[in-house]
Structure formats: C-alpha cells, structure tokens
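Hey, resending since the last one bounced:
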Amino acid sequence: MKKLSFILILTLGIITSSCLDLVEEITLNRDGSGSYSMVIDMSEMMSMMEGLMSSEENNSTDMVGTMDSSMLEVAETLRGINGISNVAHKTENYKFKISYDFANIDALNEASQNNALSSGGMGQGEMMDGMMPTSPAYEWTAKTFERIDAPMSDLFNQASGDDEEMAQAMEMAKMFMGSASFKSIYHFPGKVKKVENDDARISADKKTTTLEVKLLDIMEGNASLGNKIYYKKK
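The structure tokens again:
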C-alpha cells in the first residue's frame, strides 16, 4: 500500500507540473573531444509531494541525501575512467547535475555506462530503477555524430506484473505523464547539414541540435533518443 500511495501522489504531481525533466547536453570539438552534462530536475515533483504528504510520510530529505550520495559515487567512478576529466556534481533544489570533459568518443562511451541514469544509478530502488533510458552508445567521425539508442520495452507492464493494485496505479500514471520529458542538446564545431531523427530541431545558427521526447513514449518503447547528425568540419 505504501508503494501504491507513493505512485498515486506522484501521479497528482504530474497532473499539475512537468514533474520530471532530464536534459543531456554535449558540446563536441573538432577532434572528437568535448564536454557532457546531465541534469535531472525533480523540483516540481518534490514540491508537490511535500505539499500532499504528511510529515511522517515525507522522506524528501532522505531522498535528496541518498541521491546526492549516489551521484558522488558516480562522480568517483567517472574520475577513474581514462580520458574523463573535470568531473563535477551538484545538488540544488531537487536538481541533480553531473558533468565532465571527455578526451575522445571511447571515453564518452565508457562514461555513459557509468552515469547517473544507469539502472538504479540514483540509488532510489523501485522509484528510479528502470525509469530512465538505457545508457546509449555514441559514434563519431570528423563529419558525423550519432547517439545509438535502441527503443525500450514497455516498462509500465513490467512494473505492474501480476499486481492488480500496481497495474491500476501504472495506468493512472500513464494518463498524466505526458509532460515529463527527456531533452538532448548537442553543440557542434561546424554547421549541421542533416539529422536522421525527424523530431530533432536545428538551431538558427545551425550549430546546435535539440531533440525533446516525452518520457512516457520512451518508457513505453514508442520513441528513441537515437539520432545521427551530419555536420561540416568548421
């Protein structure tokens, strides 16, 4: 019942806010090096939960501490990867950010397997485990950059299983989760010529692409953040 109550409260939060936003940002240099950051913004969701839950039920302080500790562990892991430098993590107002520089595409790929979005990586057990897109793989040439991201299986069906109460809660959550999103922003050293994902947008100066996908669509296996971008060297 505690699990069901939490999801119902979470659903109410989704009705009135975007609830959960994830922003991945990559700046790519001409030689294939660059910088990476990921921001998980739970501020609106947690604010709503604090307003709806009693003081005994509200464990937001513990949650922040647990997530911050998990991000610290992730940061330490990233610091041990060859080609990763300037690792930093920040927690403020239920916004969790991790960032680093990568020397090449191999370093970025290894780091992506150890970032804060890996399954259970935020240390939140049933709440976060499996709710995030799987760790992607990247490919780079002097004229192309690709995020390879296979569609996920339907996580809502997996979460509910044979539990009727959980299945009902999952259905309610699906009704109101349309505003939660995952956004990927990529900056390039030259002008972008073409993108393969039809949902991606190219900036006015043609040096940045933005792809925003509903988290619900990703979790149901109906959308992918995969994209191949073609750009000029300079």
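DSSP finds seven helices and eleven strands in the chain.

Sorry for the duplicate.
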